[in-house]
């Protein structure tokens, strides 16, 4: 990302649907790392195909994540902590525990409708 001045989003307000605002709203380092790596992949695919659909999908997906980050930063950190706990049984070949809610239900609890 370029070294542009960063405008702060007022606490609790949803980010705009553009790459800079989305990245700025990501409070968890793993999210920022995933965003940066994914953006590199998507931009390479767009260059090869000249199809902006993948970029639009990327922006929409990461905007949902950024909204979740703004609405509940602790929840985003919890996601990574739970993922680490789930990975341990997976690495040991044991069944992975499942939650009782869908992603849509979890996002709706945070006020994010898809």
Structure commentary:
This protein is an all-alpha fold and 114 residues long. It has one domain (19-109). 64% of the residues lie in helices and 0% in strands. It contains 5 helices and no strands. The chain has helices spanning 19-25, 29-49, 53-71, 73-91, 103-109. Helix 2 (29-49) runs antiparallel to helix 3 and helix 3 (53-71) packs across helix 4 (73-91). The chain is globular and about 45 Å long. Residues 1-8 have low confidence and may be disordered.
Give the topology.
Elements: H1 19-25, H2 29-49, H3 53-71, H4 73-91, H5 103-109
Helix pairs in contact: 1-3, 2-3, 3-4
Provide the descriptors you would attach to this structure in a database record:
mainly alpha; disordered N terminus; 114 residues; 5 helices
Report the structural category: mainly alpha
Shape: globular
Number of helices: 5
Mean pLDDT: 85
**Helical content (DSSP H or I, runs of 4+):** 55-70%
In total, how many domains does the architecture comprise? 1
Number of strands: 0
Beta-strand percent range: under 5%
Runs in which pLDDT lies below 50 for 5 or more consecutive residues are: 1-8
Topology order in helix (H) and strand (E) letters: HHHHH
Major pleated sheet: none
Radius of gyration: 16 Å
| First-to-last CA distance | 27 Å
Quick structural overview:
By secondary structure, the chain is mainly alpha-helical. The chain is built from 5 helices and no strands.
């Amino acid at each position: 990302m370029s070294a542009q001045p960063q405008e702060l989003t007022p606490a609790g307000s949803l980010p705009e649907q553009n790459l800079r605002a989305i990245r700025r709203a990501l409070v968890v380092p793993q999210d920022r790392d995933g965003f940066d790596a994914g953006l590199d992949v998507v931009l390479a695919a767009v260059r090869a195909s000249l199809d902006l659909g993948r970029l639009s999908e990327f922006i929409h997906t990461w905007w949902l994540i950024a909204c979740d980050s703004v609405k509940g930063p602790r929840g985003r950190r919890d996601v990574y902590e739970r993922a680490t706990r789930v990975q341990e049984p997976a690495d040991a070949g044991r069944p992975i525990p499942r939650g009782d809610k869908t992603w849509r239900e979890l996002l709706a609890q945070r006020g994010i409708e898809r």
